[in-house]
Amino acid sequence: MFSKYPAVGFHFLVTFELIGQTPVDTQFQEVSGLDVEFTMESFNEGGQNRFVHQLPVRTQYTQLTLKRGYFIESVLTRWFREAIEDFNIQPVNLLITLLNENHLPVQSWYVVNAYPKKWQLSNFNAMENNLVFETLVLQYSYFNHIIP
Q1: Helix (H) or strand (E) holding 39
Q2: DSSP conformation class of 29
Q3: SS3 assignment, position 26
Q4: Which helix (H) or strand (E) covers residue 121, if one does?
Q5: Are 66 and 12 in contact (CB under 8 A)?
Q6: Cβ–Cβ contacts within 10 Å for residue 64, how many?
Q7: What is 12-45+52-146's CATH topology?
Q8: What pLDDT, in 10s, does the model give residues 9-63?
Q9: Angle at alpha carbon of residue 62, lines to 133 and 12, rounded to 5°
Q10: Rounded to whole angstroms, how far apart are CA atoms 110 and 83?
């Protein structure tokens, strides 16, 4: 069934396949990095000097960036710390789901073999009254687009 309106990007859910995941581990302010593109190979055709053929070789996926308010302790934060501090890297799969106004899935993206790449905490500033935010950057193998 086709919709008359484009999907909104402010109502979504991120679910990790982690044991003991808590509700705070699904709440994010922003998700970016669901990007895929072809890497190309140049092919010179004999006798034809006006152009070079560009042939697709493989798909290449970017890194996934998740932003949220900083929780002192969560399963996701512990998973990140174990990877970065102890070099205990445990890839997991995750599901990013776009929701409608009734909190039902509109579309989902199943991200495969994600693991921590970078963790960043927002600045502390005594002159401002701001929340602390963390940015979690994940490397992953690929994603599958799922339409319910």
Answers
A1: strand 36-43
A2: S
A3: helix
A4: strand 105-121
A5: no
A6: 23
A7: Pnp Oxidase; Chain A (2.30.110)
A8: 888 999 999 877 888 888 899 999 999 999 999 988 877 788 888 999 999 999 9
A9: 50
A10: 21
